[in-house]
Amino acid sequence: RPLFSICSMYLETNHCRITQQNHSSNDTALDPSEKLHAVLIILYMINLAGGTLGVIMMSQQLFQRRSQSVMTITITSLLVLHSFMLLSIPFRLSYYILGVWKFGRFACRLASAIIYLHMYATFAFYMAIVIARLLRLEFRKCYTMAWVGAVWLLGALVIAPVLLSYYGTAKTYHSSKCFQFHRELQEAHMVIANYCLAGILVVVCAVLTGIQLTVIYRVAVKYWPDINSHVEFRAQAKSFFFILVTLICFMPHHVFRVYYIQNYHLDKDHKLLLYNEVFLALTTMCCLDMLCFIAGIAH
């Protein structure tokens, strides 16, 4: 009987331990943070693979055509922007997979800043294409090269140095962590800058969406039912593609960004921070636009 009692106690203890381990493993499997990290890894892997393929294929198309039109110059600029952004994605994947940042603080700030520079520069080129087609503006090559060069010089010589000088430097962060610059929002000028950027993007996109849909409707009514055979309709439809990419990729991040700024101080477990990172990762999906261009050219 003593032996039987000892065996019973041993079995009960092991049963409790196994039950606790199962509960802990289930809790770990259902941890929202782990799910969000998995979503980030999947998004960045898709963007890296699809974006790289799109850049390579579009580069081949442009090289074969040897065109120097306004559209070609703009697409080339988008290719360069996407390429810089794609170079930063492996560093992000390394961090989300390993859970540790191993490349130093400057590399962290650079990788974080690149994604914002890419987003706003891409948005600027998108809106320039839409406005040019809405107003039916025809630029000479020299004028197009001039304003595209001005955009690049402004970004490379002014915006990028200022951003790298101040972004992520107001507070002290752990060297093994990255992309956690939420404490910068304690600074009033950072809050104002975020609100202004979000407001400008949302308003510009909303206004151009309304105008573009109105133009497409009028052109569709004018040329119905053979609308696809008219160059004007196809051109306006292609312009709407840029607005659609902005609505899908950029708009959710900026809408959530406003909510995040207002509630980040309540984010004790950093869940809102991870959701913000997911919406930021969604902005990088705009690099898949080159695959859509290839499909359009093939069609």
From TrEMBL:
Q: Which GO terms describe its molecular function?
A: G protein-coupled receptor activity; oxysterol binding
Report domain G-protein coupled receptors family 1 profile positions: 50-293
Any one cellular-component term (Gene Ontology)? membrane
Annotated keywords: G-protein coupled receptor, Membrane, Receptor, Transducer, Transmembrane, Transmembrane helix
For this protein, the parts annotated as crossing the membrane are: 36-58, 70-93, 113-135, 147-167, 192-219, 240-259, 279-298
The UniProt entry lists membrane topology as: Multi-pass membrane protein
Which interval of the chain is the signal sequence?
Answer: none
List, alphabetically, the PROSITE patterns matched: G_PROTEIN_RECEP_F1_2
Question: Where is the protein localized?
Answer: Membrane
PANTHER family assigned to the protein according to its UniProt record, in alphabetical order: G PROTEIN-COUPLED RECEPTOR 141B (PTHR24237:SF40), G-PROTEIN COUPLED RECEPTOR (PTHR24237)
What is the name listed in the Swiss-Prot or TrEMBL entry for this protein?
A: G-protein coupled receptors family 1 profile domain-containing protein
